[in-house]
């Protein structure tokens, strides 16, 4: 799969253990809330979170800033033949400084996967409370809202599913 163009000052790399650890220790509060809902754990532990994200199988990339620090780790895990779920974890400072570039890179990685022979659907599941993320999925990533999944998360929270399917829109 071709990697997307990355703006000067940023670098796309293979994730290292230290990248997951760094981001888990400075992860966005809304992403922490989602991870807690997903995991069902009562409190946030960055080490447990980092290990869980490291265990996701599939495609993963790290976005490094000009100092070589990880600001985002994300990718796609294959759920079944042709169907992939996107995931990512990022820092507040990374999003604040590079939000536009992050959006373009994530969109290109997603679209590259969707245009490959190995994929006909990409989806994302988000806490229903993450309203800003919902806007980003639709506007920046071009995903289509498929609706609410009541009680989807381990803690009973509702989820909203977004997807893009080959040949649709």
Q: What's a quick, concise take on this entry?
A:
With 169 residues, this protein is of the alpha+beta class. 36% of the residues lie in helices and 30% in strands.
CATH architectural designation: 3-Layer(aba) Sandwich
The main sheet orders its strands as 1-2-3-4-5-7-6
Integer average pLDDT? 94
How many DSSP H or I helices? 5
What gross morphology would you assign?
globular
From the helix content, strand content and strand pairing, which structural class follows?
alpha+beta
Tally of strands: 7
Portion in helices:
25-40%
Report Rg. Answer: 15 Å
Largest sheet: 7 strands, mixed
The run of helices and strands is: EHHHEEEHEHEE
- CATH level-four homologous superfamily name: Gcn5-related N-acetyltransferase (GNAT)
Supply the CATH class: Alpha Beta
Task: Return residue spans where pLDDT drops below 50 for at least 5 consecutive residues.
Answer: none
What is the CATH topology descriptor?
Answer: Aminopeptidase
* Straight-line N-to-C gap: 22 Å
Q: What's the number of domains?
A: 1
Percent in strands: 25-35%
Per-chain topology:
Layout: E1 11-13, H1 17-25, H2 29-39, H3 46-54, E2 59-64, E3 70-80, E4 82-90, H4 92-114, E5 119-127, H5 131-139, E6 144-149, E7 159-165
Parallel strand pairs: 4-5
Antiparallel strand pairs: 1-2, 2-3, 3-4, 5-7, 6-7
Notable traits:
169 residues; alpha+beta; Aminopeptidase; 7-stranded mixed β-sheet; 5 helices; 7 strands; globular
Describe the structure.
The chain is of the alpha+beta class. Helices cover 36% and strands 30% of the residues. The protein contains 5 helices and 7 strands. The protein has a 7-stranded mixed β-sheet with strand order 1-2-3-4-5-7-6, sandwiched between helices. Strand 4, helix 4 and strand 5 (119-127) form a beta-alpha-beta unit. Helix 1 (17-25) crosses helix 3 (46-54). The longest helix has 23 residues, at 92-114. It is globular and about 40 Å long. The protein starts with 10 loop residues before the first strand and ends with a strand. The mean pLDDT is 94.
């Amino acid at each position: 799969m071709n990697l997307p163009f990355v703006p000067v000052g940023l670098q796309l790399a293979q994730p290292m253990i230290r990248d997951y650890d760094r981001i888990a220790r400075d992860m966005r509060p809304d992403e922490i809330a989602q991870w807690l809902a997903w995991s069902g754990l009562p409190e946030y532990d960055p080490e447990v979170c980092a290990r869980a994200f490291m265990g996701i199988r599939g495609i993963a990339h790290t976005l490094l800033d000009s100092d070589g620090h990880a600001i985002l780790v994300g990718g796609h895990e294959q759920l079944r033949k042709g169907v992939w779920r996107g995931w990512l974890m990022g820092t507040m400072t990374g999003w604040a400084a590079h939000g536009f570039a992050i959006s373009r890179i994530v969109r290109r990685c997603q679209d590259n996967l969707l245009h490959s022979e190995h994929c006909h659907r990409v989806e994302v599941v988000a806490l229903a409370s993450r309203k800003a993320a919902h806007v980003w999925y639709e506007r920046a990533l071009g995903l289509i809202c498929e609706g609410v999944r009541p009680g989807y998360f381990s803690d009973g929270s509702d989820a909203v599913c977004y997807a893009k399917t080959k040949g649709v829109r």
